[in-house]
Amino acid sequence: MSKKVAITGMGIISSIGTTIEENFQSLLNNKSGISTIENLNTIHKNAIKVGEIKLTNKQLAQQLNLLPENTFSRTSLLGAIAAKEAINKAGIKNINEYKTGFISATSVGGMDLKETYFYDYYVNESNRKYINSHDIGHSTHQIADYIGLKGMVTTVSTACSSAANAIILGARLIQSGQLDRVIVGGTDSLTKFTINGFKTLMILSDTNCMPFDQNRKGLNLGEAAAYLVLESDDIVQNEQKKVLAYVSGFGNANDAFHQTASSENGEGAFLAMQKAFVKANLKPEDIDYINVHGTATLNNDLSEGRAIIRLFENNIPDFSSTKAFTGHTLAAAAAIEAVYSVFAIQHNLVFANLNFKTPMEEFNLIPQTSLKEKSINHVLSNSFGFGGNCSTILFSKK
Amino acid sequence: MKVCYINGSACISAQKTVDSEFLKEVEINTTETVVFAKQPSYTEVIQPSFIRRMAKGVKMGIFTSSIALKEANLEIPDAIITGTGMGCLEDSEKFLKAILDNDEQFLTPTSFIQSTHNTVAGQIALGLQCKGYNFTYVNGAVSFETALIDAKLQIESDEAQSVLVGAVDETAQHIIDLYQLNGTLKKQDDLAFPSSNGIILGEGASFFVLENKQKENSYAILKAITIVNSLEVNELQAFVESFLKSNQIAQHEIDLVILGSNGDLTFDNYYEQISQLFENTPQTYYKHLSGEYYTASGFGLWTAINIMKNQIIPEVVRLNSLVKDNYQTILLYNQYQGKDHSLLVIKKC
Lengths: 398, 349
Prior knowledge:
The structure holds 2 protein chains of 2 kinds. Chain A is built from 13 helices and 14 strands. By secondary structure, chain A is of the alpha/beta class.
């Protein structure tokens, strides 16, 4: 790639921790965040397992010092916490010092408010202040206002690949010189809407999800937010900033197969990975670790596995899905996994694919099932979503 | 750096914008708080069995994208990028209502599947078998503008030779009710444009084909575009000046200013300010024809490229009586409720 895109800060809140440090510790200790729902009122409470953050909206708002009359959705609350941490970690004092952007990904936005007050709005005037929080771009605005950012602010929504695409747009804007600094990532909270949606598709697991296992029963939904601070070479050099890793390549393609299902041979995934290698000027054998999309649905793992075999042939690097830790956090997933990919590079670690027991009969792909230390220079991270969206990002040490 | 040409377009709106001469027949709404898009017969581009099942937004998107491609004489673009402010509202409301009314039971997946914000871009890709770059932006009044920024970058940096870029928003009953309840819509007894508070809600779709080559039927060059999340009225002048300067455009070069004025008195001062900045320049508006929706600026760009092509400003969109012999450079400004400001310049090929 022409200009380098440095990652200089990260922030995260997920079911395995409310900070960067907590998330890292949970990954080190194989501590999963999958549990039974507590904060959300749904009849499926005991029928499914989820990656829920065990903090109420009130607690999250307090952490952000918001006034009680705030109109933040849970998505905005989680996003603001992660964005704030990312900015602090990047050592940014003045958020508007450079040409700065904020590109967030979400699929539900303020859906939690919409489903809570859907009928109540007609009778209860006092709750109508939440109406404007429904459109998902509003959550991005709330977070941008909270961190005091004035500049290019926008939202990507391509279902479960959204955050990867936010990272891709951010990287391209840095490379083209349109922005000097951009905060990219995503946020999604658990909602009845998504729980019931995935339930009707019959892809929710009633047990802890088992990515890439022959007996996998589906995914665990999760909620999370994560952001990365991307900065140009110029800022890095002028301010002598510590670089955590680089976004070295990316690819986006469409499977053009079905609105929700992935094609059998993983065409879109294959194309996305292929494009990322071209962009990064890297070869498959350069990859030390793949953080797979690995949702643990029958369809995804088979399709993604086939795409990986097509691309890597007989030389499959260590790979794991971290969704057994966090659940599938939809639009935020790629941002969560970007943080974990950077951890892998920083600490030379491959994280465990929890709950794996039996290899899939269709191919001989065995994920890394325990924490593994090794030198890591390049990580590939995949994310796929409804609408045929397939995205790959490559992260590199140098 | 490659030049970004607009080579095809199509628009569905509250006006007769399909199969008719540019704004020749218009209907000025004076009685409704919501204006609905005129639905074409979809039979020529969508299979009849799908027409019933597809939500309005998806149909409008597929239809306009297919006409735009045809106009540009292009079969499959390298990339598909859409912007939508509210996404697939019809299906999203339908699914949510079913969840609430049946206490989370007896649900079917169809409307959930169609409810994701990237449905239109995904369906177009599926129909065209287009495996290229596919993005959807959803950020209020800059949803479409972000799609344009991305598309322009794709063309200029040679990542793509051709990009299909579009704007889609549909209305649905629940959001209309809520907008009435919270005062977003104008009051039924005070619809004056622009001397009352609130908006007239609209819907529509517009698609454009951007390419790195000029063709016989090219409309214009997409020269420059910028967005910012929030501005005070007194910051507007600097915003415009720095945008023009960084794109090496002199203020006097602007031959026409197209404002996104939506008749909402509360926020009209933003448009007033721009209007004053360009008081000696011809000015037009369009949301009295399209209604206001997050991607109404797609309709705005559609009017801009048609004015550019015809070199005539239709009476019905004029804000002042100034005219020019020719329109080489057009500036568009849009914002919604003081947020999501955008500036866009197109130039004659």
